[in-house]
Each structure stands twice: as C-alpha cells, then as structure tokens.
Specification:
The complex is a heterodimer. Chain A has 9 helices and 26 strands. By secondary structure, chain A is α+β, with helices and mostly antiparallel strands. The termini of chain A are far apart. In chain B, strands 3-2-1-4-5-6 form a 6-stranded antiparallel beta sheet. A 6-stranded mixed beta sheet of chain B has the order 10-9-8-13-20-19, with helices on one face. Chain B has a 5-stranded mixed barrel with strand order 7-14-15-17-21. The relative contact order of chain B is 0.14. Classes of the chains: A alpha+beta, B alpha+beta. The interface between A and B is large, with 83 and 76 residues.
Chain lengths: 458, 433
C-alpha cells in the first residue's frame, strides 16, 4: 500500500504554491468485504481494497475537481483542478470562514469489521437464511451483508489537516414467497457504525419477516385515495428525510430566488408539536462524524422547531451566500466526488402520544410500517411501506399489500396532527443525491399520524 | 495483468483477471451558471479464481499490489460458491463500434459552450426557468484475460448532454428535463432543448383529474420510469432460476400483448451500453426476450446459465466491481405504427405519463407499481389540456402490457439503456386530491 499520509504532506506543500481562492484535498484508504446469498446458496463473497484521492480548487466561484487512484504525479492533479476552476470562474468567491483545524479524530474503540473472520460472518448469515427457509411457501431469499473501514485525510489551503476514520456495516435481508403466479416479498434493512453486535441475534425479526412475506400472498391491495395514516418510527423517519430533510439542504435553495422566498426562515410548515432535527454529533450512528468533508466541525441543527422553519443544512459556500452559519453538512460518498450538502442523522422529536392514542379515533385508516424506499422532487415526495394494515374503528385490522404514499411539502407536514413518544433511529438506509450513493445516514421518529394522506391503490 | 494471472494459476485451477480504467470529464451548470469542471481518473483490477471447484474474488485499485490480490481471492475461495461454468477460451468477437476518437478531442471550452447554448435556448422560451445542465465525456478501457487463453481488450467513448429545468410559481414546482448520450460527440442542443420546450408548453396550465380508472398513454420517458425495471428483474436468469420471477414458467407462452416485442441488445453501433463482449468475455449478442407477446428467453451470465442448463447470453455484468451476474445491456421495445397525436386524439378522458416518481419502490417482482405523476398531462376530448398534480397511479406491469390499445411510432432512447416508443393502455387506476 502507498503511504497516504506521506502523499498528504506532499499535497500540502504543492497546494501552497498555487494561486486559487481556495484549495482542498482528500486522500482515502479503504477496505471492504461482502457476502451475498440468493436462495439457499451463498452467491458471492469478496474483498476490496481502495486507495484514491482528489483535489478541489475554487477560483472566483468556479470549482475545479480532479479525482484519481494513482498517487503518482500529484502536482499535475492540483494544476488540473486549478486550471478547471479558472475556466469555470465568474464572480467573487464566497466561503463561510472557519478556523483551520489540525486534528486526528481516529476512533479506536469499535475497530475494523473487515478483519472479522469471513467464517464468523458466514456462520451468522447461514442461521438467518435457515430462519427464512424454515417458513413454508418461501420461494427464495436474498441476503446482502457488507462492511467497510476507511481512513481519510483532509487538508486545505488554510492549513487544516484532519485525519478521520469510519467503520460501517449494512445487512439487508429479503424473503420471497410465491403461490401460483403471485410473488410477494418482505425485507429488513439494518446497519451500524461498525458494531457487528448490532446485526447479531435477529432470529426472531428475520422469522417474522419471512412469515410476513407469506401473509402478503393472501393480503388485498388497498383502494387508492385519501386516508388518515399512522406511520411507525422507521417509515416516519424516511418521511422526515424525504418530505423535509432534502428541501432543507441549502444547495437546492441558495441560488434560487423563488425557493429562497418559499423557504424563508420563520415560515410555518407544521403544527406546534412538530420539530425536525439533523444532528451529526449524536454518538455512534451511521450518520455521525466529527468534521465534514470541508473540515467544518459538525453541529446539531434544528430544521423545524415548533412548526416553524428555523434552520437549514450548509456547506461553506451555501452558508456564505445565504449569510447563515456553516453547519458541517458538506459530505462526499467517496473521494471520487466533491462534497455536497447532505443530511446526517435526521429525526422528528418525540412528544407524548401513545400508539393507542394515535389509532383509537380512526374509523378507517392505514397503519404503514417499515421501509421500501422514498424519493423527493422537493414539492412532491413519495415513500413506500414494506408492511401495512387497515385500521378499522380504532383497531388494527387486516394486512395489506405494500403501499406507496405521496405527499406535498406544503400540505402534508401541516396534516401531522399527533406525535408519539417512542423515538427510534433506523440505521438501515442509504441516501442518494447528485449521483452519490449510498451515503450512510440515520433517520428516526416516534410514531406519527397524518390526516388526508394520498395512497396509491386499485 | 499477466503477472497476476500467472501468480493466480500457481494456487488455483482457473483464473481470470479483469481490468477497467477510465478518464471522465463532467462539466456541470447549476442554476443557469457554469459551476463545476471535473476530471476523474479511476481504475481497478479484479481477480476471479476457481480453487478446489469454488469461486474466489478480490478487487483492488492498487495494480502493483499483486500478491495481496491473489491472497485475498484465495481466502474468499474457501467459502465461495461452487463454480459450475468454464471461462471462455480465445474466440472471435463481433466488431461493434463503440469508440470515436473525436470525443477525446472535444475541448473543455467546447463543452462549456454546449451547456450554455442548451440553457440559453430553454431560457429564451421561458425566462424564469432555472436550469441545471451537464456535458460529459469519458473514455473507458477494458481488458480481460483468463487461464483458458481467453483475451479481449477494447476502448469505449461516451458523450452525454442533459438539462433539467425547474419552474416555481407560488409554491407550485414544475420539473422538466431531457438528456441524450452516444459514443460520438453530441452537438445538437436544439434537439434536446425542443423536448424540454414541449414539456413546458404542455404543462403551462394545470388540469385536475378525477379519482377513477382512466386510459393512459406512457410516453417513452414514462415507459422508462414506470415499466422497465420490473421487466429487467423478471427477465434476469437468476431470478427466473429461483422461481421468483412471475414469468419463470412462461417460456414460449403468450404473456404480453401480441404487438409487444422486447430485446436486450448490446450490439447497436455507437451506443454507450454496447460492447463486443460482456464482463466475462462472452461475445455480445442480440437476445429476443419477447417476440410478439411470447416470452422467448431470459438473460444469463456464465454461472447462472450453467446452473439453468442454458448458454450465457453475454449478459455477465459487474455492477460496482462485484462478481459477474446477469445484467441487462439495453432494453429495446419494437415501435408500432400509431403516432403520439393519434393516440391522444383517441382518448376522451385520460392521462399522459411523462415521469412517474417512486414506481421502483414497490414490490418489483410482482409487477405491481405505484407512483406520483411528477410530470403528466390530462387529456380531454382528444387534446392535452394541462398538467396534473397531486396524483398517484397504481397498476401491474403484466396486466397493463397484456392488453395494449396501441404502440407508438415514436421510439427513442431514454438514457442509455432503454429504447422505447409510447405505449397506450386502456385503463390504469388514478387517485388524485
């Protein structure tokens, strides 16, 4: 392996010789391993090692970016990035000022999950696969385990030099049940910041997942239309991420005058019970980190507080252009991409309602659980539930086929009329934006209730 | 590479070395202005071995770290799946043109000019629209060698040009966009912009739509965003082998409307998804998946084909550098004879879907889909009268495609991996506020 620290010191020297408004560099060394199953058999098992870096330069608001695997000839990479920035230059550069940081924020306590013997990982996955196959009518199973460990070095023309590391584990399981030409599936998505213990001892939920896939074979499709919907913490977390989180990313807003008018601080988006937070400083979650990929220390940021828009997520550039404080949310999925504004750990703050409170006065509604996916176009968003039940006369009733819900930013948050007390963070998701995915994030919420939610159906 | 192969052969019965390296240059415009110019150099080498009948696999970006690569592949082979296939020996590959040296000579200044032109055309039409655009060029080199004498190397160029526009009125947001790609340099900004201008014209007025089943016309973009992913999954030989595809048992049967024919085709000259061979060195071929409504075949890589007692269709792809598995190249639906205008005039009350958001989030395997109509229009008495909003549609791909009213003559490439005409279906469930 080449010495990335040695290369970083070389880069610091080269950067000092160039004329640009700002230059930064990232170097990264990573290892990963994965094991996948399809059906009873192991499908693939492999290991990856990856070394690379990038240089990003700013000249009069134009950015140049050069990424590379080869660490030879770093001088020409810097030169290229500066030249590209000069070509993209237009108006005066603005970056929120931050203090240079020299720090080595290496976490030693969790360790590197890639070094756990493959035999141990395989043994655990074998038992989960057995759990799925013990269920009747299961046609096949899919299991995808992945882990990684990476060390990064960030340095910039202000003199910052930051070393960080990150361990990550993800586990996705799916059970597929068939009967005649019907095919139904149920899944589980889990993750942790390198803690292998977090994905052990899941035999009960895995068995339930398989049973749910079978139950879906005889479940009806929901009739399309507007319903009162109760979301479980996992799905409500996805909702917070899609429905509001993305629009609070300032890079969507900062050069868009109309959006700036719409997203003006102080605007009311929800009722007084609704607060949404993004917080990378929470310890040990997949979206946690100490410094972002621009070397900015992270913060806890209220996006919505008591129903009103009070903050948003920033890079140094968006913060300067909007005359707000940087929040440390510029993140890149790897050295192949420049940092852009991203969420970290996003959640709806808990209140007091119990689950019974939430459903007891619903005559006909839907209880939607678990997570298939979600996407947003800012105003409109959709998110889909892996598990759903009718609520009839205040009680949970028959299971439904998976449902897709849609909302409109300006109405749906206003329609949240009750928030539970049982905050739970989901670590199984990965976020995609601008071609960069999956970025480790966490989402969370207590149970919430939404009135007049549009549900797709027959 | 030869050294890696030689080292691997000392410890394993069979070995294959796959190497890919690329140079990419995206030029990006944000909110009407040039913002980023990037260059990305990347490359990796992957080693697959068969040791004691089992597959081992390792990848690295460090080309010089040969021994570590061989050791890691050996470590994983202990647990790897039983290899049922044979690596392809030396063979003659079809000559499929995917390299145009003029792509490399397009200058950054010319790329910047193309992006500006694209944005200018759209803004001359609607000044308040905010545009993001990307002009991209890339060169990719691929080389495969294996222990049975198989050897292939080729270079490919890719050029793409795309624009997305956003129009905000009050709290109403409209999103429009179009992109095209090729192995040749692209320069016809007018052709791309005209698609966007048409979207802006059609979406000028808003038109409410009722909650009930309605006839629907999927434009080529609409087909790609709503119907293709479930099909790509269903025709995957691995999903078929597991019995998880709803058409696993339907080979030779009439599953779709008899006017529907579908191909997987990596042999079209100068298309970014084309190549002389797949990522295992199996020669490229055009594979008929649906012939006049009948299921004709599925797509396979070497291992899955061996397990299913079939032949590889040259669809072994390495998504994100992983082990080869059945991967579509480009899905091509044969155009029909009806113009888009004739389809619209046939509808008394109905919906045109240009972009469905969230359709890929449902139970893809069953063919059920549901999504928000991000861009779609209401048809009233044979005419498009405006854009629908706050609207969800929901249906099943197999049901929809078994009874088609008409297939359009307007086939086009959507992105690099789908070529499709418009498809007009008699009924789809619509829910709206």
């Amino acid at each position: 392996m080449p010495d990335t620290k040695e290369s970083a010191h070389q880069l610091a020297e080269i950067i000092g010789k160039h004329q640009a408004d700002y230059i930064e560099a990232h170097l990264e060394e990573s290892q990963a391993s994965y094991i996948t199953y399809r059906g009873r058999e192991l499908e693939s098992i492999g290991k990856t090692t990856n070394v690379g870096g990038n240089v990003r330069a700013l000249v009069r608001s134009g950015w140049g970016f050069s990424s590379f695997n080869s660490l030879s000839d770093l001088a020409s990479r810097v030169e290229l990035a500066v030249k590209q920035a000069q070509l993209a230059a237009s108006k005066k550069s603005e970056l929120a000022s931050v203090e240079p940081v020299i720090d080595s924020a290496l976490t030693t306590e969790i360790g590197n999950p890639v070094t756990i013997p493959l035999a141990k990982k395989k043994q655990l996955l074998d038992t989960y696969n057995d759990n799925i196959w013990e269920t009747s009518k299961i046609k096949t199973s899919i299991i995808a385990y992945g882990d990684g460990f990476k060390k990064t070095i960030f340095l910039n023309s202000l003199g910052s030099f930051i070393e960080q590391d990150r361990a990550d584990i993800t586990l996705r399981l799916a059970a597929i049940a068939t009967e005649d030409t019907e095919v139904q599936q149920a899944g589980l998505s889990l993750g942790s910041r390198g803690d292998f213990g977090a994905i052990e001892n899941l035999h009960q939920p895995v068995t339930e997942m398989a049973q749910h896939a079978v139950a879906l074979l005889s479940a009806p499709k929901v009739k399309g239309g507007e319903y009162t919907v109760v979301l479980d913490p996992i799905l409500a977390g996805v909702f917070a991420h899609e429905a509001f989180g993305h629009l609070s990313e300032a890079d969507f807003v900062y050069e868009n005058d109309r959006l700036r008018e719409i997203m003006v601080l102080g605007r009311e988006f929800g009722g007084p019970e609704l607060s949404i937070v993004d917080d990378a400083t929470l310890p040990g979650l997949r979206g946690s980190y100490r410094y972002d990929d621009e070397g900015v220390p992270t913060t806890k940021t209220y996006l919505i507080r008591e129903g009103r828009l009070v903050g948003r997520l920033h890079s140094r550039e968006t913060a300067a252009r909007m005359h707000e404080k940087p929040t440390g949310n510029a993140r890149a999925v790897s050295y192949r991409y420049p940092p852009i504004v991203r969420m970290s750990n996003t959640y709806i703050e808990p209140r007091t309602a119990s689950f019974t409170d939430l459903i007891s006065d619903i005559k006909e509604g839907i209880y939607a659980k678990n997570w298939y996916g979600g996407t947003t176009s800012m105003e409109m968003f959709t998110f889909s539930a892996g598990e759903a039940y009718m609520i009839r006369n205040g009680k949970l009733a028959e299971p439904l086929r998976p449902v897709t819900l849609t909302g409109n930013l300006f109405h749906t948050l206003q329609n949240i009329d009750a928030i539970g007390s049982d905050l739970d963070m989901n670590q199984g998701g990965g976020c995609g934006k601008g071609g960069q995915m999956p970025l480790p994030v966490a989402n969370g919420s207590p149970h919430i209730r939404i009135r007049h939610c549009l549900v797709g159906g027959k | 590479m030869e050294t890696i192969l030689a080292q691997a052969k000392q410890v394993a019965e069979e070995a294959e070395v796959f190497m890919v390296s690329s140079e990419e240059t995206p030029v990006q415009f944000e909110t009407n202005h040039l913002k980023h110019i990037q260059s990305k150099q990347s490359g990796y080498v992957a080693l697959r071995i068969i040791k004691e009948g089992r597959t081992g696999y390792a990848i690295t970006t460090e080309f010089s770290d040969r021994q570590n690569l061989v050791d890691t592949a050996t470590e994983t082979a202990e647990f790897g799946m039983k290899a049922e296939f044979e690596l392809p020996p030396q063979t003659l590959y079809p000559s499929i043109e995917v390299f145009d040296p003029t792509v490399e000579s397009v200058t950054l200044e010319e790329m910047v000019k193309l992006g500006s032109e694209l944005i200018n055309i759209v803004r001359r039409h609607t000044p308040e629209v905010l545009c993001d655009a990307e002009v991209y060029k890339g060169t990719i080199s691929t080389r495969i060698i294996n222990s049975r004498g198989g050897e292939l190397s080729y270079r490919q160029t890719v050029f793409s040009l795309g624009i997305q526009g956003q129009l905000i009125r009050g709290t109403d947001m409209l999103f429009v966009g179009e992109s095209q790609s090729s192995c040749h340099p692209l320069s016809d900004t007018q052709a791309i912009a005209s698609v966007v201008l048409r979207q802006l014209d059609l979406a000028r007025e808003q038109a409410p739509i009722p909650t009930k089943p309605l006839p629907v016309i999927f434009t080529p973009n609409g087909v790609a965003s709503a119907l293709i992913l479930p099909l790509m999954t269903a025709f995957n030989g691995k999903v078929v082998l597991e019995g998880a595809s709803p058409i696993s048992q339907s080979l030779g049967e009439q599953v779709f409307d008899e006017r529907l024919s579908l191909y997987d085709d990596p042999t079209v000259a100068y298309r970014p998804q084309s190549r002389p061979a797949d990522d295992e060195g199996t020669p490229s071929q055009r594979t008929t998946l649906v012939e006049q409504g009948r299921v004709a075949s599925f797509i396979y890589d070497l291992q899955t084909a061996a397990l299913a007692s079939k032949k590889s269709t040259g669809n072994g792809g390495r998504a994100r550098g992983g082990l080869p598995s059945p991967t579509p190249s480009a899905f091509i639906i044969t155009p029909g004879g009806t113009t888009f205008t004739d389809m619209v005039s046939d509808v008394k009350e109905g919906l045109v879907i240009e972009h469905l958001m969230g359709a890929e989030q449902g139970n893809i395997l069953s063919g059920d889909f549901s999504g928000n109509v991000l861009l779609g229009y209401r048809i009233e008495s044979g005419k498009i009268v405006g854009r629908v909003k706050d609207t969800m549609v929901s249906g099943n791909v197999y049901q929809l495609l078994s009874d088609i009213t008409a297939i359009g003559s307007d086939a086009k490439w959507v992105g690099s991996s789908v070529y499709t005409p418009s498809i007009y279906c008699p009924e789809l469930s619509v829910a709206s506020k």
